[in-house]
């Protein structure tokens, strides 16, 4: 039997996400913005709730193309509040628009979104033996959360940011013994960076 995180064993959609996507490096702006938005929407909800609506989110938020989302106005936000294909939470919808504009401002300042996010990658990754040893935040997540807030982002608390970091492979919290441990190609199974 393959070893997976407990959450990945509760639904076939979660299992597929775990086996194919979770923990793989994401560095492109659109991909990172989508993950940031989805993690924001997930706050207070289960991840399966978000995954089941992922295509609805993509349709509602213009494929998570930053420049298109940044143009959303109050009327578009009101329309999204009627969209049953997403989580209809005004604060989270408005945060996604605000964060798209924050990504644009980063670009204008000469900093790429991916560059900023990945500059907070830690030197060492956790080595959890079971789910109880998987952290929910880190010093790097706290620092990145503060920096994103300083740059005008919202709904980017340290727990959510750590979830983002695990989702995009910045840290590897796959359990020791999992067939996915080290799948990102960035981490050795002992938690050290590849090539270090």
TrEMBL record:
InterPro entries: Adenine_glyco, DNA-3mA_glycosylase, DNA_glycosylase. It comes from the Bacteria. One of its GO terms (biological process) is base-excision repair. GO terms for molecular function: DNA-3-methyladenine glycosylase activity; metal ion binding. Gene3D superfamilies: Hypothetical protein, domain 2. Zn(2+) binds at residue 174. The chain crosses the membrane at residues 152-171. Keywords: Membrane, Metal-binding, Transmembrane, Transmembrane helix, Zinc. PANTHER family: DNA-3-METHYLADENINE GLYCOSYLASE 1, DNA-3-METHYLADENINE GLYCOSYLASE I. This is DNA-3-methyladenine glycosylase I. It comes from Leucobacter insecticola.
């Amino acid at each position: 039997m393959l070893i997976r995180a407990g959450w990945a064993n509760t639904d076939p959609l979660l299992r597929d996400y775990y086996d194919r996507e979770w923990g793989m490096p994401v560095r492109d702006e659109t991909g990172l913005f989508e993950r940031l938005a989805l993690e924001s929407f997930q706050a207070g909800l289960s991840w399966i709730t978000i995954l089941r609506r992922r295509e609805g989110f993509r349709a509602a938020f213009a494929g998570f193309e930053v420049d298109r989302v940044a143009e959303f106005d109050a009327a578009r936000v009101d329309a999204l509040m009627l969209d049953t294909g997403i989580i209809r939470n005004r604060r989270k919808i408005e945060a996604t628009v605000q964060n798209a504009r924050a990504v644009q401002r980063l670009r204008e300042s000469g900093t790429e979104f991916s560059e900023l996010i990945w500059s907070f990658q830690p030197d060492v990754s956790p080595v959890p033996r079971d789910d109880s040893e998987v952290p929910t935040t880190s010093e790097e997540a706290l620092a990145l959360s503060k920096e994103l807030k300083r740059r005008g982002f919202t709904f980017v608390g340290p727990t959510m940011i750590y979830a983002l970091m695990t989702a995009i492979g910045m840290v590897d919290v796959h359990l020791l013994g999992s067939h996915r441990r080290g799948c990102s190609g960035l981490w050795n199974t002992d938690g050290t960076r590849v090539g270090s």
